[in-house]
Amino acid sequence: MALANTEIDELVSLERGEVDRRIYTDPEIFELEMQRIFARSWLFLCHESQIPEPGDFFQSVMGRDNVLVVRQRDGSIKAMLNTCAHRGNAVCRAEEGNAKNFLCTYHGWSYGIDGRLNGVPGFKTFYDGQLDKSRHGLAQVAQVASYKGFTFGTHDASAPPLEEFLGATGRLGLDQIAARGDMVVVPGIQKFIIDCNWKIAVDNLFDWYHPQVTHASAFQPGVMGTDAPNAAEREKIDLSEVNMDSGAALDLPATGISGTKFDQVVVLGEYGHAIGGPTASSSGSAVFDQTWRTTAQARAALGPVGVEVAGHPNIFPTTWIAVSVQLSLRIPRDPGHTEIWWFTFVDRNLPRETRDFMVTIASRIFGPGGVLEQDDGENWAQATAQTRGIASRRMKHQLTMGLGRGKIIKEGGLSRVEGLTGEHGQLWTYHSWAQWMKGLGWDELKKVTTPGDFI
Ligand code: FES
Ligand SMILES: [Fe+2]
């Protein structure tokens, strides 16, 4: 399908803050996303702590390609497609583990942990020794690289180096986990499918408008952690009285922009990366303790601006770093289905009880048993379902909160908008999505996804 750039511009309007519902349901657009976003972008594969020893592997996903990320004998990491070079069967069914080789269960071709084809049953008898084994190894992912232990891959050999792709915004996102200590992934990745388009699950991570309504049932029983309202406070909650302006900034002018008093900050980065949510000083009442940001170590690691940015980073397209010290992937399966993965991080040096407590809290919030994600998933599924009707589809999604009033401040290598709750993070994501969908070269793509003066 050739979708003209003018048609793509009509799907997302940064000027009007409108998104065409077709982008959530059209299979041709989904296919184009696979080609122009997921076959080009750097994508998170796993954390190095998951594969410490030679032969350790983790099976990850790039677009719809399953890839095996494998620690090599020399300590390096390779990623290769999990599909046999003979006739396509998967060569590994396990989600993770340690392997001496990968044996295809169809006809028995076997590969080394570096993907080289070693064994072919009947090589002499059936093939007359005529098969050039050096040409039929597992296909290697074009580029693999790590930033502070976070391993990414891209199918595009011409993609810029990982650190350049991440830029200051993407790196700050990963630093928000790395700066907390000697971080390791807790064994066991939570995986489940929500009946929603992947972009609805992504744009929600910047949405600080919904929690008071969507998650009222999660906050009221007090299961969210020590800062959730106590019983006496809960009795006072009346949803009709919920003030949707956020936190301490209720007396701010309605313009939402203030150089001195604000409680939300949205960082906009090249290629579509963004971070959106509360400032560190205003998030004291949040469920997860942000006091670690007051240390000199955090300030040094995150920088004077970054240390104040306590919202949710998304590394475009689908890597979300949550305040619960977790990393989530929103993996598109088809236009109406998204597989969610949750990686939970802890400092390896913490006492066992503290680590267990953090894992318990993390599992209670997100993931299939998490009170928040169950609430969210219902909304995302319904929002996706209502993109399918002919009449419903004529209505555009509205992302107009704060539109045109987001003055972009450039400081410390970051571009940010300060104010009250707004939809600048979502707008930036959709604007960038549209640029990726045009199939631009890397230089041009970077240029048109570099923040200007206003959003
Ligand atoms: S498909 Fe793998 S050996 Fe034939
Ligand atoms: Fe939510």
Question: What structural category characterises the helix and strand content?
Answer: alpha+beta
Total number of strands: 23
What is the fold-level CATH name, i.e. the topology of the largest domain? Naphthalene 1,2-dioxygenase Alpha Subunit, Chain A, domain 1
Largest sheet: 10 strands, antiparallel
CATH class of the largest domain, please? Alpha Beta
As for the number of domains, it is: 2
Radius of gyration: 23 Å
Number of helices: 12
State the separation between the terminal residues, measured CA to CA.
31 Å
The proportion of residues forming helix, as a percent range, comes to: 25-40%
The CATH superfamily name of the largest domain is Naphthalene 1,2-dioxygenase Alpha Subunit, Chain A, domain 1
The mean pLDDT is 90
**Shape by Cα distribution:** globular
- Enumerate the spans where pLDDT stays under 50 for 5 or more consecutive residues: 226-260
Strand residues, percent: 15-25%
What does this protein look like?
The longest helix has 17 residues. A hairpin with a 6-residue loop joins strand 8 and strand 9. This protein is α+β, with helices and mostly antiparallel strands and 455 residues long. The protein starts with a helix and ends in a 7-residue tail after the last helix. About 8% of the residues have low confidence. The strands form five sheets. Strands 13, 14, 15, 16, 17, 18, 19, 20, 22 and 23 form a ten-stranded antiparallel sheet that branches. It has two domains: 105 residues, Rieske [2Fe-2S] iron-sulphur domain (Rieske Iron-sulfur Protein), CATH 2.102.10; 283 residues, Naphthalene 1,2-dioxygenase Alpha Subunit, Chain A, domain 1. FE2/S2 (inorganic) cluster (FES) binds next to loops.
